[in-house]
């Protein structure tokens, strides 16, 4: 059956379903399309909700309005990791406008071929936050991971979708496709990088982004997963280019509930309401973990102004680094750690007033290669670190550390600064380090560790910028300076 007419092209139902599923992966539209004409038994407690009965919020969220709080649900994932004490489960990621929600809810689990759901009581609400961090108030959307155990008769079967309801027999207002991204050969790749929602509507960081993505590829990142709020057109151009090469994946993102999503207003909200910003960031971080937990050995959460840099000359990749680091950790506890944390150190920039010497034979647009002076001292251990997370061990993630882990306490192995450092390229320290920032700035040392990638990184970056048309025609093949033709200010990424 043909359903629509578009510029002379007929789109059939199957094509339409595939298109919607690609735009909204949490919607089980393929399953609904397959079963929408199935008549359920009259005695059935709950019926499968039509996709037209679901309550959507800000495009990507689905809603449950309970008698004690509103749930905005983002994704559902099938979890059969060996260290999970609750056994096979579906975990639902979302936000609830309650602290310590007490309302009882149920999961309606829909399995392919079943005419009615199997209903289980929600096992737990796992809070992805600490109350001491702020915003611990009723009425503010809080990040949660909700767990539903798979009943024994269905263990080994992956639910097609799940609905969260307050009463067992309710017709659901939400229905999330259960994601299970397991490789066919069951072989994991090395490293994935997850990047929180990009909020760069006015800052054109496209050239710096190219340098960063190319460096991550050289270090061994198999794929970079971006979440996109609002970005400059040149950044979109870069992301689309790398998506076509299958080197990055971009997931569009909105803020749930009554939070603003209008361009400009959203940026203002996130820059002024920093605690809300931090809470919202936990959704893409944990979505990225659960979509990729079966596909990669390690997952790193990084911002685009920082990179985990192996320091030893013999370590050219993260694989080289982690082979040594994991072996060191095994000697301490005869087991792998949930995460391996790397100390933060600032590589300062004075904005457009470059008071450093320009590195010769290096294009001036190579931001990281041109900034080889850093603070002498690292930030304190366990402060502002970034980690390589073991997805078999972590349950929920925060920007800097895992919050909860499978099988017990979240022990994180501190990687020696002789082995690696988190190179953080900023004009200033984070706000919470204002008092000690002057000391960092006054005591700096030269650090050219990144130059071991110099020639290849310049070549890769220049090639990409050329393909994207970011050079003026007269300099597309030419000098090391590489005159750029871009429409925006290459300003620093600010937290």
TrEMBL record:
Its EC number(s): 2.4.1.-
Localisation: Membrane
InterPro entries given in the database record: Glyco_transf_92
Protein's UniProt keywords contain Transmembrane helix: yes
Membrane topology: Single-pass membrane protein
EC class of the enzyme, as a word: transferase
GO CC terms, sorted: cytoplasm; membrane
Molecular function terms from GO: glycosyltransferase activity
Domain of life of the source: Eukaryota
Keywords: Glycosyltransferase, Membrane, Transferase, Transmembrane, Transmembrane helix
Family, as annotated: Belongs to the glycosyltransferase 92 family.
Name by which UniProt lists this protein: Glycosyltransferase family 92 protein
Species for this entry: Anopheles epiroticus
């Amino acid at each position: 059956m043909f359903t629509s007419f578009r510029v002379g092209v007929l789109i059939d139902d199957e094509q339409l379903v595939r298109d919607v599923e690609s735009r909204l992966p949490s919607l089980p539209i393929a399953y609904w399309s397959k079963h929408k004409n199935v008549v359920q038994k009259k005695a059935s407690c709950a019926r499968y909700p039509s996709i037209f009965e679901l309550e959507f919020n800000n495009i990507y969220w689905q809603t449950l309005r309970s008698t004690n709080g509103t749930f905005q649900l983002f994704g559902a994932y099938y979890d059969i990791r060996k260290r999970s004490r609750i056994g096979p489960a579906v975990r639902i990621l979302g936000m609830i406008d309650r602290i310590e929600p007490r309302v009882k809810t149920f999961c309606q689990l829909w399995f392919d071929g079943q005419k009615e759901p199997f209903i289980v009581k929600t096992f737990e609400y796992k809070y992805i936050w600490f109350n001491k961090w702020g915003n611990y108030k009723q009425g503010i959307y809080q990040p949660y991971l909700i767990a539903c155990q798979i009943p024994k008769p269905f263990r080994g079967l992956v639910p097609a979708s799940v609905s969260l309801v307050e009463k067992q027999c309710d017709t659901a207002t939400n229905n999330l496709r259960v994601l299970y991204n397991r490789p066919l050969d069951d072989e994991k790749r090395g490293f994935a990088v997850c990047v929180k929602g990009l909020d760069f509507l006015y800052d054109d960081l496209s050239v710096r982004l190219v340098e960063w993505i190319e460096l991550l590829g050289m270090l061994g990142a198999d794929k970079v997963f971006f979440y996109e709020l609002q970005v400059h057109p040149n950044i979109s151009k870069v992301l689309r280019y790398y998506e076509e090469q299958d080197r990055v994946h971009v997931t569009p993102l909105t803020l749930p509930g009554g939070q603003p999503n209008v361009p400009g207003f959203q940026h203002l909200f996130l820059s002024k309401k920093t605690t809300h910003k931090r809470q919202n960031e936990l959704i893409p971080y944990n979505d990225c973990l659960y979509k990729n937990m079966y596909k990669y050995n390690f997952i790193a959460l990084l911002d685009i102004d920082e990179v985990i840099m192996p320091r030893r000359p013999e370590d050219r990749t993260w694989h080289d680094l982690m082979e040594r680091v994991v072996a060191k950790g095994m000697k301490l506890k005869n087991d792998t750690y949930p995460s391996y944390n790397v100390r933060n150190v600032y590589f300062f920039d004075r904005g457009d007033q470059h008071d450093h010497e320009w590195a010769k034979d290096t294009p001036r647009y190579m931001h990281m290669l041109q900034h080889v002076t850093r603070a002498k001292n690292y930030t304190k251990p366990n402060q502002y670190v970034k980690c390589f997370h073991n997805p078999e061990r972590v349950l929920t993630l925060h920007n800097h550390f895992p919050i909860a882990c499978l099988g017990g306490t979240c022990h994180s192995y501190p990687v020696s600064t002789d082995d690696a450092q988190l190179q953080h390229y900023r004009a200033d320290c984070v706000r919470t380090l204002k008092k000690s920032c002057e000391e960092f700035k006054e005591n700096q040392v030269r650090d050219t560790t990144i130059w071991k990638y110099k020639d290849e990184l310049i070549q890769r970056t220049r090639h990409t910028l050329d393909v994207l048309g970011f050079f003026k025609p007269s300099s597309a093949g030419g000098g090391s300076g590489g005159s750029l033709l871009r429409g925006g200010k290459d300003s620093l990424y600010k937290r």
